[in-house]
Design a protein that fits this description.
By secondary structure, the chain is α+β, with helices and mostly antiparallel strands. It has twelve helices and 19 strands. The protein is globular.
Length: 450
């Protein structure tokens, strides 16, 4: 059971800028109807309720306020225009704030942070609800971030956060969380804010070159879709589990690929991990499928260094392209399915992802072409080992566990992050119906042991 202890709102400190309006680039607009991104970070940090409420919570509030002065859009709102001839923006004005819920849970902390299959519904007590949308005559005013801090007395802390993707991609959100954590774990909060000035977030969308007005083209399609908020997908009728590939496992998988396909150039840890999970997952689906049906793998790509001119690494917003390799079903479930998947993903990275003139090519058609992806058989990816969210340390040590909760609402999506316990290893999170998870776990384990 989870008990509410406090609800509050945290604003930037006095002296912060009075207002900031950020126009949306075409890479922001494409996400405007996407469901909230929901994540949980669990920390091993035994403490009492009194220590939590008297020391940890006040410090966290202070550090959040100080961090927000450099991340004003995080405290702001998406303004979705009633007159859709106008473009949406993210706006901060003095008085805007981030909602923060403080709670206490009597649930089993060790059960929640395990890797074994667990009922997915139980995690939603720890996930903050997005605040309601406010209907203004000119706009829908949409808060973009919500936070929840939950104490497991004598055992640990869970930090839950939810945000609309329009606010920013994983690089941006992890950058904000890292900045907040840095401020929180230093005794002199204000001093660290000054020191971090050289890596302040960069919000100027003019760095996103849009000579053919892709933003306006995409908005023509997106504005025809009614803006709706999304509640938790309960009951999920799913279980969540984490699968670990150690460095030895990854090395073994790379060797298997190169023995069969020595000409492949891009046999990275991501390639073999994604390929192995994809091939195992397709084999665990208990459905009748004709052999020539296409199976897709959809993965996000940070475009900051992959466009010309490059976008600064500290750019805060969305700067994502994607890869979408496909394979015929009969090949993916066959004996060589894993190797074929690795070859196909590696080719996509070589020929599209790593070519500056290819990654965002045709972006003006992304919204209008969405329809053709509806109902396809696909595995998606959330997160990246490049953005090490579990490494975010608020002074409680590195996170024990990351749970990417929003994948419950997607048919098949894997989360991926660095392993906490195995140097060079990766953790893969899945949310599946129980029977399918059991089948996947068996295929995954057997493939590594053979």
């Amino acid at each position: 059971m989870t008990t509410l202890l406090e609800k509050c709102r945290i604003s930037p400190p006095p002296g912060a800028a009075a207002c900031l309006t950020v126009s949306l680039s075409f890479l922001d607009i494409i996400w405007i109807h996407y469901h909230p991104i929901r994540r949980l970070l669990f920390y091993d940090y035994p403490c009492s309720k009194s220590d939590f409420m008297e020391t940890i919570v006040p410090k966290l509030k202070e550090s959040l306020s100080l961090t927000l002065q450099n991340y004003l859009p995080v405290a702001g709102n998406l303004l979705y225009p009633s007159d859709t001839e106008k473009m949406p923006v993210i706006r901060y004005v003095s008085g805007d704030s981030v909602p923060l819920v403080i709670a206490e849970s009597s649930n089993d902390f060790d059960e929640l942070v395990g890797n074994h299959a667990r009922d997915a519904d139980q995690f939603y007590d720890l996930v903050p609800q997005m605040p309601p949308v406010i209907d203004d005559p000119d706009y829908k005013i949409v808060p973009v971030l919500a936070l929840q801090l939950t104490l497991f007395p004598g055992r640990g802390i869970c930090l839950g956060f939810a945000n609309y993707h329009t606010l920013g991609d994983a690089s941006s959100i992890v950058g904000f969380m890292s900045a907040w954590a840095s401020v929180n774990r230093i005794e002199d909060c204000k001093e660290i804010v000054r020191k971090e000035g050289e890596s302040l977030p960069f919000f100027d969308r003019s760095v996103m070159k849009d000579s053919i007005r892709i933003g306006s083209i995409l908005w023509e399609t997106m504005r025809k879709v009614t803006f709706e908020t999304e509640s938790f997908p309960l009951p999920t009728n799913r279980v969540r589990a984490t699968f670990v590939l150690t460095l030895n496992d990854i090395t073994k998988l790379k060797k298997m690929v190169l023995e069969k396909k020595p000409s492949i150039v891009q046999v990275s840890s991501f390639v073999v991990t994604a390929s192995y999970v994809w091939s195992c997952l397709v084999k665990s689906v208990n459905e009748e499928v004709t052999g020539d049906v296409a199976e897709f793998f959809i993965f996000p790509v940070d475009a900051r260094g992959r466009v010309d001119p490059p976008v600064p690494a500290n750019f805060f917003g969305n700067c994502l392209g994607y890869g979408i390799p496909k394979i015929e079903h009969e090949k993916l479930v066959g004996e060589e399915g894993f190797v074929i998947a690795a070859e196909t993903i590696a080719e996509e990275i070589k020929n599209r992802v790593n070519k500056k003139n290819e990654l965002l090519k045709g972006a003006e058609n992304w919204a209008s072409e969405w329809g053709k992806f509806m109902g396809i058989r696909a595995l998606g990816v959330s997160g990246s080992p490049k953005f090490d969210l579990p490494n975010v340390d608020f002074g409680w040590g590195k996170a024990r566990k990351l749970e990417v909760v929003h994948i419950d609402g997607e048919k098949y999506t894997m989360s991926i992050c660095k392993s906490r316990n195995f140097e060079g290893g990766l953790e893969i999170g899945l949310s599946l119906p129980k029977e399918m998870m059991e089948a996947f776990a068996s295929i995954f384990a057997n493939g590594l042991s053979s």
